[in-house]
Structure formats: C-alpha cells, structure tokens
C-alpha cells in the first residue's frame, strides 16, 4: 500500500523504500545473524557489545522502515523507525555507555515498539490476520522490554537474550514478508489469480503467535527465579553492646529446623575476630545427641561448611535444610558416634558482612570461637576435646583453624584436623576459573570478598567490562537460591567468551592477598586429607601440589585419594571417605597416636 502523510514525506524513508529486494533480504539475514551473535556472545568486551547493540538498533529501524505499512500505520511506524536509528547511532557514538544504560535504552525501545504494535492492531480497516500478528508481536515487545528493565539484576545475558532474540524474530518475519511479496509479484507477472488472504498473510500471524507463546513461557518460567530468597531474621542482628573479647556467647535459642531425631540443637550468636582485627559477631549452630548423662561431655566435631554464597542470607543456619546446605550430609552418622557438632556460619553469612570468603585467618577464628562460645551453653555438655572437620571452602578453614588453634584458642583442645577436598590454593583456583566446573560462580564470591575488604582490588582493575555486571549479580545469589538458575544460565552463556580477567589475578594486590590465604603446610595436630580423584572443582592435581608442600614440612598427614569421586560426592553419607574419616577421628578421640609420617593412599572405586 502506498505510504502517505508524514511517513511518505520523510526523505530517509523514501530512500529506504527504493532499496532492491535483495538488499532487504540481506538486511533480514543480517538481523538474524547479528541477533544470534549477541545471544551467543553476551559478555564480549563492552565496546564491541555496544557496537553490536547499536548496529542492531539501526538495523531494526531500517527493517521497520522498509516493511509493509498499512493505512493508518504511517505516523507510528515512521517515528519508531527514526527512533531506532537515532538511538542506535547514539549507542554507537557514545563509548562511555554503561551496560545498565544500554539495557535501559533497549528496554524502553522494546516497550515503545511493543505498545505501537498493540496500538496498530486496534486500527480500523485491518484484517484479523494483521490484528493478531501486530498484537502478538506487540505483546512480545512489551514482555521483552519489561524483562530488560525490571529484572532484579540486569545482566548482559538478559540484554542479549532480550534484544538478540528480538533481532532474530524481526529478521525471520521480514524474510517471510520478502518471500510472500516475491511470490505475489511473480503471480501478477504471470497473470495468475491472487492468492487468498489466508494463504498469503496468515503465515506472519503464525510466526507472531509462536514468538509471543515462547516469550510468555520464558517470562513464566523465570518468574519464580526472582523470588524465594531466604530472609535474615532479627536473631542475627548484634546488639549495640557486645563482649569485647572473641569467643563469647551473645545469645542462643533452641533450634529445630531439619534437626535429626534424637538430637537437640541451638542457634548461636557469638563474638569473633574479623579481618581487621576487631571483634565482630558471627552465627552458627550447635547440635548434640539426646540423653546425655550427668557429668558426661560430648567430644566436639568443629564443622566448617562448604561454599554457600557471599550474601548475608546465605548462612546455612538460615536455610530450610541447614546441614545439607552446609555440606554435612552424614550428620546422622556423626551424631550416632556420640559426638556433638558445632557449625559456624562464618562472619558475613547471617550477620553483617562482608563475608571473608577464602580468607584463612578470619575463617579459622570464626570456627574456633564458635566452639568456645558453644561451651557456654551448659545444657550442651560439650567437652574441650575437639576434632576440626571441613569441606571445600570449609576444608581450607579447617586447615587454618588447626594451625592457629594453639596460639589463638588454647582452651580448645584440637586433637586433629580432617580436611575434605580443601580449597588449599586460592591462587590456583582463581587463576584457572575457566577450567573449573561452575568456576565463575565461585570466582564471583571470591572477588566480591576481596574487593569489598581491600580498596585496591577493584572490578575495573581486574575484570573485563562485559563480565563485571555478570560477576556482581552472581555474588548476590546463594547456591540454594532459586535464582541460582540464572547464574547457571550466565555460566552457559559465557562458556564461549574470552577470559574473565583483564589482568592476571596472580599479579598485583589480588595476587598478594590470594597467596596470603594459601593454606598453611604445618599445622601441629595430625591431619587427614580426603580428595576425590574426579573432582572438577578442586582438582586432584592441585591438591597433590599442596600435599607435596605439607610433606616437605614434616606434617603428620594421611592423604587419601578416592578414585572416581567428584567434589561433593566424597561427603555423601555412604562415601568410603566418610567411613574412613569417622574411623580416623575415633582413633584421635581415643588418644591413639596418628601416623608419624606423610602417607598417601589411593582408594579404588
């Protein structure tokens, strides 16, 4: 249909109208390809992404200008086309745009475009096929725009899926239109009767219906991911005045959530020493077997939990399944042995942060102070005899606690230390984050901790611009949050991208701090170290290097490598490592001497 009014008078539009059909087809294909590139490579360098998004906006404006326009649409379509092109040029020309600014611009344009589509569907003299197609595409744009603007943590992945997906849909629709126009022109040249409306025009409506269905499904599926985070309650808020020395109990209350039968538990708030050397508050749990006889004291397993997250609401004691989230899967077996469990949340999980993730000394202090504070609960009847256990992040904390116990908390009688797949070498873990399964998530926690605590460690200094918002968003999610699925999508969406770091993390202040927190090689108490042979998070090769240094320091060590076991599998209730650790711990509580040498044993699957 001829273009009239303002639309027909626009010089740019008249120029675009005269483009050959093959150029319009090429532009449609370019739209599909560009959309796919943005979706596949969402966190490429920010300057390149801005070029892709800006180019996509210009392309969208051109395709909109060259598309079929019905009576009454001209003014709407002209303004939108010019808007897409102008803002696309703006994004291309402004190198300092932030990712959030690009997301907002994209979201606003998608909303306006969607609203225009819905409005066009209501115009008079429109066929039902056009009304349905315009309304469906309009709703698709509105949903995409809302997702880009109000997603709880706008990341490049969201922008890529939203805008890249819309470019793909736009290109497909225009290819369909070009194909339909070509067929119609050939029919006219042959003098054949014109195809019926359903045959020649309902195809566009069908594509529109498929696109809006997929978009609605995407919005519905992701809606629960923005909900359900644990809420930190008042128990974790430290009073204005707390004891001036670490290891003191601030408050305790009975705890029943997910506590095994025939056990009694308390939630505790206590004092400990922070990274800056000042007294801070931390939280934790104390669990003891039921039915202690008068005067009987339970030996203590000082449990240091594996990674749960960086944010305050990631404390294991806050979760619906606290012991599962803490990685203490064999809790029933431990209690059945007649041992009590003291489990710190660490500073910053539950209590005010920041959480010193992978910080050796602060984690050790929180662990030892939890045991000291728990002994103030008279009903718990805890012995001073303690064996420190820990897995992954907690494995490193256990190693540090064992090394510092004698000087920091001499009243805690540490008989031995058992570390399971400990994160003993933070530098190696961070440096090889791309080779580690889910490494991006753990890197987000580590970098959030170090950058929050040390002002000379910053995102711009170490992290590629395109990855900065992704990493910050990841650090706000716990491993047990429903929204962790978004982090999984981020990991998948960035798997083909360049490295996370713009600067080698082993250099500068970050490298210095990481090396400072490498696990000690001389502990004093005997050490049991269990490692999965198929561990993809803390690789056995990395652990072997740590063990080599430990043995060189003449530390009493029993190192067992369990063939075929993954990172978390070693802690399964019926894992051979759990059985070995329990037997080894029994011997330590019984006063039996540990192996005086450094022994290494390979355990077959």
TrEMBL record:
Keywords: Membrane, Transmembrane, Transmembrane helix. The chain crosses the membrane at residues 21-40, 46-66, 78-97, 103-123, 135-151, 157-180, 201-221. The keyword Membrane applies. GO terms for biological process: lipid catabolic process. The keyword Transmembrane helix applies. GO terms for molecular function: triacylglycerol lipase activity. This is Uncharacterized membrane protein HdeD (DUF308 family).
